[in-house]
Amino acid sequence: MPSTPDLSDRTVLITGASGGLGAHFARTLARHGAPVVLTARRVERIEALAEEIQSSGARAVAVAMDVTDLESVRSAFADAERLLGTVTVLVNNSGIADPVGVLECDDERWNAVIDTNLSGAFRVAREAARRMAAARVPGSIINITSILADGVIVGLSSYAASKAGLKHLTAAMALELARHQIRVNAIAPGYIETDMNRDFFASDAGLALIKRIPQRRIGQPADLDGALLLLASDASDFMTGSTLLVDGGHLVSAL
Hints:
Layout: E1 12-14, H1 20-31, E2 36-40, H2 43-55, E3 60-64, H3 70-84, E4 89-92, H4 107-135, E5 139-144, H5 157-177, E6 182-189, H6 198-201, H7 204-210, H8 225-232, E7 243-246
Parallel strand pairs: 1-2, 1-4, 2-3, 4-5, 5-6, 6-7
């Protein structure tokens, strides 16, 4: 893969682009030439990000989307096509976590996580794939899973289950969509530092966790750029159904 892949010939839609990894993914892809569609429920945040990206000379639009609402998903893709053309790269990043023990987790809390992280990802990927197939254009779907798709920790049963399901869904969709020249792969991040967790990783408990990671550090958002650009570009043209683990070796040690 070239060190600076040119993504100007594809349109990328990122879910959960209002902050954290989603916003970072949008900036990274725009920096490599991709017109980007920023989606989230918090419209004011993605509008501000779109303006920031536009000020750098790249193309970006903000479109409201709630991944738990089918009509919202359909409307967002229709707006994206009208503004920038058929989406040919999807970064399925939306996700929530609800730290709660199994005995305390009620149906409402369980369903909220599953509906966003798994069912929501399916709704968005299905809509993207349908439109790619109808336009007869090749495409790439990139699902964001987690190391908790393969390992578990206390208090995140719904999150782990949703990410494990998304990993398996990645493989299932890859099998079915290959005939349409649509690749479906996933990135499984380990612990990545964001504004939401920075204070925790500076605490005694966070520092103790870092000591269990073989590389003795948590990841930075930029550590995911290589996997992201690989899967978004033609360098991964013969890859589908794969999950790329980016975790500093955490999963090969004890979680």
